Amino acid sequence: MPELILHEYARSGNCYKIRLTAAHVGAVLERREYDIMKGETRTPAFLDGVSANGRIPVLQAGGRFLPESNAACFYLASGTPLIPDDDFDRADMLRWMFWEQYNHEPNIATLRFWHVWIGEAGFSDLQRANEPAKRAAGLAALQLMEEHLAAHDWFAAGAFTLADIALYAYTHVCEDAGFRLADYPNVQAWLARVAARPGHVTIEV
Ligand SMILES: N[C@@H](CCC(=O)N[C@@H](CS)C(=O)NCC(=O)O)C(=O)O
């Protein structure tokens, strides 16, 4: 594997996913921190040299740049048991990772950002208007996870895969966003299983 550099903001769950994957596969990452609150990913140097999308995380592998957290996890875990060999199981793992990016992260991670970094008193009119819909969608996502985990230990392939890493990142800190993990006992038990895996590392807050 080429030299790996993670362009990140350490408190972001999307960046944490990549560090967690790296820890599980034994990949060594050089880390470069950007303060997203100061717009450090929106500078011409970042937009031209790292990612035109203006967001972290970006995984740099040698001279190539890979934005999108789940793509970076997929790259790091290629050829390891974190990605199932079976075609259907691998697609099912990806299904949960796409679901995470559409139904989970935009609601739970965004509410975490709004509540922890901005605070309700500082919400814009748009944030105040959108909060209830994001909360309802976040609750629906947690409920769907709860129902899946009533019958399964893991999200895909009957094994610990990248789907668990992707979903763990923002689920385990969802109380920052005002969700109650006590309402989801199957999710709580799964969080404990993920945290008990050899090689687990914690998020930096
Ligand atoms: N879908 C992307 C989301 C990336 C994203 O939204 N990054 C946020 C932090 S978690 C960011 O860079 N925000 C700063 C900004 O938009 O200026 C991923 O999974 O990597």
Automatic annotation (TrEMBL):
Name of the protein: Glutathione S-transferase family protein
Residue ranges constituting the GST C-terminal domain according to the UniProt record: 86-205
InterPro entries, A to Z: Glutathione-S-Trfase_C-like, Glutathione-S-Trfase_C_sf, Glutathione_S-Trfase, Glutathione_S-Trfase_N, GST_C, Thioredoxin-like_sf
Gene3D superfamilies, per database record: 1.20.1050.10, Glutaredoxin
Family annotation (Pfam families): GST_C (PF00043), GST_N (PF02798)
CDD domains: GST_N_4
Domain GST N-terminal, residue spans: 2-84
Family under the similarity heading: Belongs to the GST superfamily.
